[in-house]
Structure prediction request, 436 residues.
Amino acid sequence: MPRVGVILGGAGVYDGSEIHEAVITLLSIENKMGDYLCIAPNINQMHTVNHLTGNESEGEQRNVLVESARIARGNVKDIKDVDPNEIDAIILPGGFGAAKNLCDFAVNGADCDVNQDVKELLLNMNKAGKPIGAMCIAPVILAKIFGIYKPTLTIGTDKGTAEAVEKMGAAHKDCPVDDIVVDRENRLVTTPAYMLAKGISEAASGIDRLVEEVLAMI
Amino acid sequence: MPRVGVILGGAGVYDGSEIHEAVITLLSIENKMGDYLCIAPNINQMHTVNHLTGNESEGEQRNVLVESARIARGNVKDIKDVDPNEIDAIILPGGFGAAKNLCDFAVNGADCDVNQDVKELLLNMNKAGKPIGAMCIAPVILAKIFGIYKPTLTIGTDKGTAEAVEKMGAAHKDCPVDDIVVDRENRLVTTPAYMLAKGISEAASGIDRLVEEVLAMI
Prediction:
């Protein structure tokens, strides 16, 4: 059974992983006869956002690994302990956590830094020829790490984000919510998810296709 | 388009709503051409649990409405502001939040009290002949509120919980994870979900059937 590492960045669209995207990814992997391993870095979140008001919850510090465990029902592995040999592919759900905790794109745009452990795992997976999928805003991480290979990616149709993706060396391709962009040479699969989705079933339509393609590439 | 109220009790299996169950419920409603309204009480959680260790995170206070907003992407309504006329049915996902925040079954078993606003909304919906679905541990709330009508419910196969359900006046029926128990007279639908599910796709199999039956009953 193929095993897919799912890198989480907290639990909640505004300061962590987008919960719908993360859960749909896990469900889709299992429905397509795969197994998953939830992974997260043991670091503090950039900040905590009150999801009811949208405002920062000042002074409230949460940990990415601990909050990711909410989505993983407790079963999440510290990315420092993950051996690339134990997984056959990686998928990154989106949400601001991908752009605030896994890298700092939300603050620094194209000049962002990617968390060192996330970077190492993705580079090792790619070097071993294993496929990587990313959705929503998470493809900016792939643009930063793999920009030197000039990969083709999508973050949907947002012009500002697409420009930043291209500044990091990737070619951006506009993509509708129910479709995916496949870069066969670099073994990268991306889909817009909630960058474009107006509802959960729209998000699921593209994520299902992404999971299917990633599993097929293994 | 039928509109289903989904009552959340936080975000995380050990102190809030079971996230997989909640998201699968929302996805299933949309996939079956329904619309959803996320609802939660504006109260403090019983406690906060570190989902990585399983231990209580002492001194950390979280609010049920605010944490539920993580699952609802910010779009959650205070149960005090919900008019029964704006929804056609209600579904309660499980997770310990259902038994710690929406009622105190986790502490007091069959002698539990249900949150007053949850109780009023469920009683009003039932009086209006609108269907109510509940999964995992959440059927204990239905047993407590509707015990006087002797409804037939399931929480899976756990003997202790089944005995408590019967002590509150309901008839308990064992049920496999991919099936549902339908009480047509009282218009209640229940399924075990993570009381029995060994994985997310197993949980989804019963939840999908529950959502289908609740929508059919409208």
